[in-house]
Amino acid sequence: MLNLDDVVTAARRIAPYVRTTPVLAVPDGRWGADTVFKLEFTQHTGSFKARGAFNRILRAVELGTIGPGAGVIAASGGNAGIAVAYAARRLGFTAEIFVPRTAPAAKVAKLHQLGAKVAPVGQEYAEAYAQAVVRAEQTGALFCHAYDQEDVVAGQGTLALELLDQLDGFDTVVVSVGGGGLAAGITAGLDGRAGVVAVEPETIPTLHDALAAGGPVDVAVSGVAADSLGARRIGSIAYEIAVAHRVRSVLVTDESIVATRARLWQDCRLAVEHGAAAAPAALESGGYVPEPGERVVVVLCGANTDPATITAGG
Amino acid sequence: MLNLDDVVTAARRIAPYVRTTPVLAVPDGRWGADTVFKLEFTQHTGSFKARGAFNRILRAVELGTIGPGAGVIAASGGNAGIAVAYAARRLGFTAEIFVPRTAPAAKVAKLHQLGAKVAPVGQEYAEAYAQAVVRAEQTGALFCHAYDQEDVVAGQGTLALELLDQLDGFDTVVVSVGGGGLAAGITAGLDGRAGVVAVEPETIPTLHDALAAGGPVDVAVSGVAADSLGARRIGSIAYEIAVAHRVRSVLVTDESIVATRARLWQDCRLAVEHGAAAAPAALESGGYVPEPGERVVVVLCGANTDPATITAGG
Q: What's the ipTM?
């Protein structure tokens, strides 16, 4: 199973390419006396996904499984695709990103802007994914999964090591879950030094339902956070780590996500995407109630969003 | 002249009430290899003004010039008024804020929300200011100036001490100037340990024109940043400190402010007000060109803005 060593190695590997994202203590308001926000949305490409993308590609370079002139392939109409396109460009590789034809125009434009070749396929993510895998097999390009590859998860986990450096101890990390790559990486990186609370929208309970079923199962995907947390099924790596480390699962309503996102702007002038707001929504809604004195870090993991929708109440 | 001791005392005084705002190093992009952003817009009330407001009121409490049940008065349709209303409420005083009838409805609503009594007076700030001063004299309430009082300037300067704690040395702080309270406080707090670059819109050159004229003079006020940097004249405290410490003055165009504000969102997912974007616009436009290896801190001092105007190009 993926472990601390993998995350430590990943951190060394990607250090020249990623930002150390800041922390903001908010001891004075509605967030709880010992709450700290990790402002990971200030990462390159506007989400934590850059960490995993760099680790995936750089590891392949080390192993010699990708050479100069070779390509990188991903399937994603969202944050993962943008991160892979960005990392590929900075490392000198071409990127081909398979997106469903329903992908938002703004995200497709961003992929073009990053120099990626964009391949629109089908109406659903699953079709784009299947095509991307076939294409990678045909061409020998490096396939970068959005969450369910060890190198990707180890890269996301570097966020945990950063927190251990930045803070003088903490008890719990609260993090949003889609495919679970970030939560799993953080859990491996913490390696028992703090607990993890995994927060999902009620409308996309991939981890919650997997824990109930005793293994990953498909869930229906809908709701305000589907653009960033819309995986149909928890990653197998994430599931295994969640069970082994007893990650706690919490669900939040879309209503609570929307209200919390607005509150983050009102109270801290932080503009994040709905998926990122799921994590603090667990505190705001009472879905997760810290013990007195429990030092909680809430990861705000992305901001690839139209900020106009915040003040409109969206 | 206001000095480091005043700022150190202010920092001790206001510590329980203000946030330590984060820093974000951006060594990899267009901002220069050794540039750090100070995310002061995450301060209470969305701007640095909370620091000065708390110091002004708390000092008056120490001196006994304001007692329980007494009031606090300010004239401002913007950040300073909101900060005074917030500080007054947290410290248990009533606040009366004089605003021009032209003040934005959203800011007036915010004042009401903070429990302040709002007094609309005249069409221009100068009228609201004159009435506020008269009212303070009549009632014995504590008048809080937006920038030209020593306690206010000392409070703003606590940001500099925070930077000295947070960073492993730096050479220059780049900061936006309206009435000059923040720039002056930072200059006093640094006390020669780093230089200060004061950035103003071409459309509101209060410090620039004062330095040219050999003393504070009235300037015309217009442009995109007038809502936060729209003082008609540099504060006398700020002018004196700027001359004594050889603060460098840089002007930027409105076009550059707008483009830089959009760039901060695109590149770092930071949504700030136009006045705050003036400081990084000095780098973006080449108005200030750091020496090779010069470690530059750029203060992003406020975000009381409608983020919808960022993606609209405004």
A: 0.95
